[in-house]
Design a protein that fits this description.
By secondary structure, the protein is mostly helical. The protein is built from 7 helices and no strands. Helix 2 packs across helix 4.
Amino acid sequence: METHVQRLDIEKSMKENMMLMVGGNPGSMVALVDMVNSTIDVDAEGMRGLSHLMNLDSLGIYDDKIWHLYSDICKRDVNSAVTLLRASQLGLIDRTLLVEACSRPDRTGAEMFNIPNIYKLVKEYLPNYGPLK
């Protein structure tokens, strides 16, 4: 995985950090707002969505890549997007594969993951994890 300069800044507000993450992409901002408001990951709720931003930041998924994850790969289903992020964090899917999928503007990244199967793996690891829908 190529190295990147992380964008999150502990001294900035959540809104400011979200702006840093999306780089002006309005679709990516919609995706981040949905992720921050998602309740599927009960074990991460104490962080109020910050864990999703931290995971994206650690992967180097910014700007339009956030939109590709949310819209193209996950068909605008926030629970699927959070599940892929959580699975990558837990080592259940290859992090470099997720980054590669998010880098594909031609929508072929969607073919790289079986989200219902990945959800089952996350649910086995985190019994409190909410329903995929």
